[in-house]
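no rush on this but wanted to send it before i forget. theres a chain ive been looking at and ive put its sequence and its fold in C-alpha cell form underneath. i want to understand how the C-alpha cells follow from the sequence so walk me through it. thanks a lot i owe you, the record is right below:
>
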Amino acid sequence: EEGAPGRRGERGDEVLAERGPGAAFHMFVLMEDLLDKLKLLSYEEEALRRHNMRPLSRHYFALPTNPGEQFFMFCALAAWLIGKAGHPFEQPQEYDDPNAVISSVLSELRSF
C-alpha cells in the first residue's frame, strides 16, 4: 500500500518531489513576471489611475489575502487588457455578479 495514490497528502508530496524543491515557489515567480509585463504596458498609468486603485505587490495574486478584492482587480485588469488588444469591453463594476463577469471575459477571449 505504500505510495498508493488514494491516500491523502502523499500524492501531493510526490508531485512536488517530482517537480523539484522550487516548485512551491513557482507561483511567486509567475506573479513577478506578470507584474513586469503589466508595467511594460503602463498599467499603473492607464488602468490603476482610472479606477483609483493601488499598484499590485510582487505577490498580489500568489497569496490569497482578500479574494473579493483580488477577483475585482483581476477582472479590471482583464477588461483593460482586452481593450488594449483592440476589442471594446465594458469595465466590470465591483459588485457585479462574478459568474456573469467571468463569463463575459471568457466569451470575449474566445472571440479572439
Summary: Residues 79 and 90 are 7 Å apart (CA to CA). The mean pLDDT is 83.
